[in-house]
Design a protein that fits this description.
2 copies of one chain form a homodimer. Chain A has 431 residues and is α/β, with parallel strands linked by helices. Helix content of chain A is 37%, strand content 23%. In chain A, strands 2-1-3-8-7-6 form a 6-stranded mixed beta sheet, with helices on both faces. Chain A has a 5-stranded mixed beta sheet with strand order 14-13-15-16-17, sandwiched between helices. At the A-B interface, α1, α2, β2, α3 and α7 of A face α1, α2, β2, α3 and α7 of B.
Chain lengths: 431, 431
């Protein structure tokens, strides 16, 4: 089991152990994903202080107090997010006071700051807002560069507890400006752990994980696998930067053409870079992806240099009138057809004067289109050195099928740009 | 503090308390958001068994065992996700065995099932996969309808522990098919809690929260607020369906034109429905949003009835050649200009033969465009009953500015469709 001891294993009560406590009913009932925990986890891991545990509780004084007491008994640093807002369901202040068995006192300085904040914006201050000036006795205030709710800092049991707002923009600026530097300096800088992420398109986790040459315990290097729809991320972590780089490169070689980065680049960023290096541009014609492919190709800063434009031809007649797809073909085969995809790719390439044309057509569902079942997808690429087509039968709901199709389209172009054959899972569907 | 007692408040050791334990380094280092916890939290809340706490730990046997022991001491039901995969960093089986102080035994039936799974797909089975047949003594197996890793069911302390895979598709199908029904029947159906969500576009949380008439403790009704970029969700929860509906309707009335749903519909779904009710269609011309607006308008099933098509005119010359934007205007003012937005809207409306045209232009950043600073955004709408324009100075990073712009565009059309004036935050920028 030693292979399960990694940078995240510090064991209860060990020095430098960091835990997060996230507060908010919205996190428990699934209204929102816990992006704050992910952001803090990433920052602390890169600082050499990986988070050992995250506890999420609702907007309830008793639950918050119990979670704070348990975490502060295990950890040296506890970072709390959420429940500092002005509304009556924001009770993290009360929870911290209950855990420390101290009263809440209204802080005159914070109160004045709140009044100033609203006055500067010519806004009348809702009375509720003043709750944000309540501070547990013994706690100190952490300024909020972006909003009204101040953060808190308080010793509890063996731990230093930092309380940050739940609004991401306020949490991140307060953490970067004040809290993270303080935590790192307290911890006496154990030295950051280095991380490289090899990303693999369109291959399943078992295929990746079963590469025989891999060993998780090589030179204190840890390898983690994360499977997402259409992608697997292989994360290599350790304190020896050279070893991490070596293992990551070895992994990329073993994984072959499906590996598109060793530096955790997104697939769209890789395609953007490959196009930029070749002074090439792309234009897209989309049916089922409805704009998602264009959005991916314009996500990176500077994409205006490589992205000419896109057409979402959702109505079938638009495919004919705007992309020059053969009307007879559309009438005979319908919009979900490999040749329609090919003609969309060449059509959009021509009409936008782009180096490459990329097109998607298919059935996102929930209803089939003609004889084509849900999940039938055709992706086509047209360029100066030839054309390529991917035919797939994808599974999942509408959103998943749309997103997977975007990955298939981006990867089709990526492989063509670097001179690789198109990905072939051996499940080509009839054309 | 009674207002902090809500459906999520059951207090430690109370009957029917449910906790989640999520396993995976990727969750702690921020590689991935905890979608499994959100999905399970939503399902369990709707079933009347709101999750009281979520504990996330890494791929570490000791951490997993400690989290399982603590959760099973507090709760009656503990649902665990992750760490059941074939790779060496999947050690949830070992963690459960350590918590129960029992050995792992290889299950012959599961082993045979794994071999069958690979044989049926003509795949050679990586040796690692057999680890998935290891079962703690005393645990029973939960079949996996979608993958190779079986789930586990085991009594621990006062709780029944269910272990599900981390891969979302496998986790959700196993939960819906086997685990959730079992949990609900064990709990003796406390009766589901009803939930309505009023969603508000483009207004800040304090404005929403400070509506004086609201009381959180009315008739056991709980009101939660969730602020996201460009939107606030007001969640009304309780066991009395009539009271929940009454309070939600009251909230929607108090919130006025900014409230676009009482049933948690997304803004794009609302716009789609409003268009469908009017047998109207929309076409979009996008610059900085790069396809995101089209993607939003095609997210809903059946959107082909209301969405004609979209053009992402990323290259400036495309705005002229494809949308008939006055070349002289483009030359004089550049692409980020209110009149360019207006001409894009009317141009795309005409070329796609849509009832309404919607257009976005602006500066997503990181670099300014000419004299226009990052965050400058113009959104225009053109329709049979007139035109509308929204000029904004948005803050945040590239991704946030692009997403906020989509919300401004959708809301501009929504308000026009229902005969409301356009949202005016009083921060119109110079035109």
């Amino acid at each position: 089991m030693t292979s399960s001891r990694g940078p995240n294993s510090r064991g209860p009560n060990s020095r430098g152990r960091v835990e997060l406590v996230c507060v908010g009913d919205e996190l428990l009932v699934g209204d929102v994903l816990n992006g704050n925990a992910a952001w803090l986890g990433d920052k602390l891991c890169r600082a050499g202080l990986p988070v050992a545990a995250v506890v999420t509780v609702g907007d309830d004084v008793d639950e918050i107090a119990a979670a704070l007491l348990a975490a502060s008994a295990r950890a040296e640093v506890v970072v709390v997010t959420g429940g500092l807002g002005p509304t009556s369901d924001d009770v993290t202040r009360e929870g911290l006071a209950a855990a420390a068995v101290v009263p809440l006192l209204r802080d005159a300085e914070v109160e004045a700051g709140l009044e100033r904040w609203y006055a500067e914006r010519d806004l009348s201050m809702p009375g509720l807002v003043l709750r944000q000036a309540d501070v547990p006795r013994g706690a100190t205030v952490v300024p909020n560069p972006r909003g009204t709710a101040p953060g808190l800092r308080m010793e509890l049991a063996t731990a230093m507890v930092y309380v940050l707002p739940g609004v991401p923009a306020e949490m991140t600026s307060m953490a970067e400006r004040h809290v993270l530097p303080e935590i790192v300096s307290r911890a006496g800088r154990p030295g950051p752990s280095v991380q490289r992420v090899v990303r693999v398109a369109l291959e399943g986790e078992p295929v990746v994980a079963s590469r025989p040459e891999w060993r998780d315990d090589a030179e204190g290097i840890r390898i983690g696998y994360l499977a997402e729809p259409g992608e697997v991320r292989v994360r290599v972590t350790g304190r020896d930067a050279a070893a991490v780089t070596r293992v990551a490169k070895q992994a990329a070689v073993l994984l072959g053409p499906a590996a598109f980065t060793e530096d955790d680049d997104t697939l769209d960023a890789v395609v953007h870079r490959l196009l930029a290096e070749r002074n090439a541009t792309v234009a897209v014609a989309e049916s089922l992806t409805g704009g998602l492919l264009a959005a991916a190709l314009t996500a990176a800063p500077g994409s205006s240099a490589t992205f000419r434009g896109g057409l979402t031809a959702y109505a079938t007649d638009v495919k004919g009138s705007d992309l020059g797809v053969d009307e007879a073909l559309l009438a005979a085969e319908g919009p979900v057809d490999p040749d329609v995809a090919r003609q969309m790719a060449s059509g959009v390439r021509e009409r936008f004067g782009a180096t490459y044309g990329l097109a998607t057509t298919g059935v996102a569902g929930p209803e089939p289109v003609g004889e084509r079942p849900v999940g039938t997808v055709f992706v086509a690429m047209d360029g100066p050195r030839g054309r390529a087509l991917a035919s797939r039968r994808l599974t999942g709901d509408r959103d998943r099928i749309r997103r997977l199709t975007v990955i298939h389209a981006l990867d089709l172009l990526r492989r063509h740009l670097v001179g690789l054959p198109a990905y072939d899972p051996g499940d080509e569907i009839g054309q």
